Amino acid sequence: MSHVSTPQRRSTGETPRGRGGRGRKRERPGGRRTGRKILLALLVLVLAAAGTGYWLYTDLNNNIQGVDIDKALGDDRPEKLATSGQNILVLGSDSRAGKNASLKTGKVSGARSDTALVMHIPEGRKKAIAVSIPRDTLVTRPECTKSDGSTLASAKRVMFNSVYSQAGPTCVVKTVEQMSGVRMDHFVEIDFAGFKGLVDAIGGVTVTVDQDIHDTSSGLDLTAGTHKLDGTQSLQFVRTRHGIGDGSDLGRIGLQQKFMLALLSEIKQQDLLGSPTKAYKIANNLTESLTTDSGLASLTKLAEFGRSMNGVDPSTMETIMLPVAYDKVDPNRVVAAEPQATTLWKAIRTDATVPESAKKSPATGGTSSAS
Question: What whole-number distance in Å separates Cα of residue 370 and Cα of residue 219?
């Protein structure tokens, strides 16, 4: 597709359609509340295989929404990695607007990033680490500029997933950078409808669970064993928390990480190059529900990035939950556990191996820690 010359879609300074103009996005990451544990890698590999003509390219290219993170955040940011490593913030948004309204994910106004992953691809791009940030983590939100140009003052002890609804994706990036000291090279977001459509387009995703799960809130009803989930069931799977552990978001993170790896493996195994129709269907669905930073806001840029990550094998990907402890004031919330969190972020910041000690979380949600 790189031979096609086409005008690039202009990026907006902040929130794309929905929050204040995007009609078909937002509200929940079942991961993200919809676990849109959709990693760039898979996403881009699909897009790279999809274009078969100028009109197809233009159609898909125009679907992508761009956010100019660099312009919005300015120079007051962590330094870029000295190596060729990359850090990508992947968000799942839980909007019930537009196509998401028919997915029976509840009636909640606004949108949140209930799922947030910091994807670290070390130098050489042969492996990857995914760090999940629990939505209930209390953080210090930095001062941010909202989509209407007004300023949102800095605040302490703010729930992490509220930052998105209060000031949009650039503020989430700024918050993550401030709490970690890690510069995000890219930002990617997908919503409910995009997540469901992706799973249906590839024919489902196979997961194995070691216990029965019955969650009346998400609608998931599974017996212990192996199941092939369609898009609706997958959305329920990554949103489930009441059917496992202590019912907190921490237990859900384990399911989300399990699903993410299964999804990536399924994508990698499928011969998308041998099925242009399927490749286009997947790419069209994803791009309609996709928002990225301006550095990835075109098919050409996504494809180039995807090719650079072609050596990453999902089976070798490491999933880690940010080490957290139950808050002493509000036990329904968690805070970053120290010194584990500082050690974890330092390893990512320096492109080093994450020590085992930095993966242990005092708060586990009643389940074993993800690994």
Answer: 23
Q: Does pLDDT of 292 surpass 60?
A: yes
Give Cα 69 distance to the centre of its chain.
16
Q: Write the CB contacts of 235 (distance below 8 Å, at least 6 apart in sequence).
A: 30, 34, 103, 105, 192, 195, 196, 199
Write the burial class of residue 155 (CB in 10 Å: 0-12 exposed, 13-18 middle, 19+ buried).
middle
- Can you tell me the distance from the alpha carbon of 35 to that of 239, in angstroms, rounded to the nearest whole number? 7
Q: Quick one: 53 exposed, middle or buried, by C-beta within 10 A (0-12, 13-18, 19+)?
A: exposed
Report pLDDT digits (tens) over 180-208: 999 999 999 988 778 888 889 888 999 99
DSSP conformational letter for 272? S
Q: Is 102 exposed, middle or buried (0-12, 13-18, 19+ CB in 10 A)?
A: exposed
Distance between CA 94 and CA 101 in Å, rounded? Answer: 10
Q: Cα(154)–Cα(351) distance, rounded to whole angstroms? A: 30
Q: Does residue 150 carry a pLDDT above 80?
A: yes
Could you tell me where the beta strands, DSSP code E, fall in the chain? 65-67, 86-93, 115-121, 129-132, 138-141, 144-145, 151-152, 155-159, 186-191, 205-209, 213-215, 220-222, 225-229, 290-293, 318-321, 324-326, 334-336
> How many other C-beta atoms are found inside a 10 Å radius of the C-beta of residue 103?
21
Nearest CA to 237 out of 208, 197, 268 is that of 208
**Which structure tokens are listed for 200?**
């249906």
How far apart are the C-alpha atoms of 83 and 352, rounded to whole Å? Answer: 11
Dig out the tokens for 20 from the structure: 């204040």
What are the counts of helices (DSSP H) followed by strands (DSSP E) for the chain? 12, 17
Instruction: Report how far residue 159's alpha carbon sits from residue 360's, in angstroms, rounded to the nearest whole number.
Output: 22
> Would the pLDDT of 24 be above 50?
no
CB-count exposure of residue 279 (10 Å: 0-12, 13-18, 19+): buried
Q: Residue 32's closest CA among 287, 258, 238?
A: 238
Question: The tokens of 243 are what?
Answer: 């059917």
Residue whose C-alpha is closest to residue 245's, from 370, 72, 99 = 370
